[in-house]
Design a protein that fits this description.
- The chain has helices spanning about 15-25, 30-35, 40-45, 55-65, 70-75, 80-100.
- About 25% of the residues are buried.
- Helix 1 crosses helix 6 (about 80-100) and helix 2 crosses helix 3 (about 40-45).
- It has a single domain (about 10-90), classed as 434 Repressor (Amino-terminal Domain) (Orthogonal Bundle).
- It has about 100 residues and is mainly alpha-helical.
- It is globular, with a radius of gyration of 13 Å.
Length: about 100
């Protein structure tokens, strides 16, 4: 049996966080995937609810200043830089306005 998507799929907390991180940096998926060391398929899978692996989260956190594995995997924002936290908040507002 293969890896299952998280409950909620694309709207699961982990998938939503990954979209917010990408949106906070203003990159299109193909550019973002390359920047963080993933394939476009991997990024798409993660943004659509497949659980991100610890190794992928570590790679992302190492490549993006101010990003932590705690935020990627669990949504804990305590270790994020103020700048990144502000960009994530703006991305959240943008995402919510697109959902209306």
């Amino acid at each position: 049996m293969g890896v299952r998507r998280e409950t909620g799929g694309r709207e699961s907390p982990g998938a939503r966080r990954l979209r917010l991180i990408r949106m906070a940096h203003g990159d299109k998926p193909a550019v973002w995937a390359q920047r963080i060391g993933l394939t476009v398929t991997q990024l798409s899978n993660f943004e659509n609810g497949y659980p991100i692996s610890k190794n992928a989260a570590i790679t992302m956190a190492n490549r993006i200043p101010g990003l932590t594995t705690d935020y990627i995997l669990r949504g804990v924002d305590a270790g994020l830089t103020v700048e990144l936290l502000r960009r994530l908040e703006r991305a959240e507002k943008e995402l919510k306005s697109g959902e209306s």
